[in-house]
Design a protein that fits this description.
Length: about 140
């Protein structure tokens, strides 16, 4: 199964998402998007496929969002996408693309919606939060 994660290894949510993907036996393509950002078209497609608006896919916290004036409501989606490509830290993460769909995996367990593999055993996030029980069922 072809699964791609746009990953930031410095982000706990991204690390947890990658661990969940691997825990179900999938070896995903890992793209460290800060070094290798998607193209304008790829990013627009991921955002649309995830059912998000461009504004919902922008990361504000810990980025130059305000300094770049991206909070201006008159900016078009194209202008926002251009800013995200020019400054990839503005891309919220992690995006995961799989045959069953595309998700912005926030929280990380949102990735489970697009993974076909059966889950086996428990899974705990880095902070100790349990996401899957010992039968591999999602904990609500």
């Amino acid at each position: 199964m072809d699964v791609t994660i746009y990953h930031n290894p410095a982000c706990g949510t991204s690390r947890n998402t990658l661990a969940l993907i691997r825990a179900v036996g999938i070896d995903p393509v890992v793209i460290e998007y800060l070094q290798h950002p998607p193209t304008h078209e790829q990013l627009a497609t991921m955002i649309a496929d995830a059912g998000l608006t461009v504004r919902e896919a922008i990361r504000e916290k810990g980025t130059p969002y305000a300094e770049l004036g991206l909070d201006n409501p008159n900016l078009t989606d194209e202008q926002l996408l251009d800013a995200m490509i020019a400054t990839p830290i503005l891309i919220n993460r992690p995006f995961v693309v799989a045959p069953l769909g595309t998700r912005l995996a926030r929280p990380s367990e949102a990735v489970l919606d697009i993974l076909p593999a059966p889950f086996k055993g428990p899974f705990f996030k880095e902070d100790g939060e349990q996401v899957l029980d010992r039968e591999g069922k999602r904990i609500a």
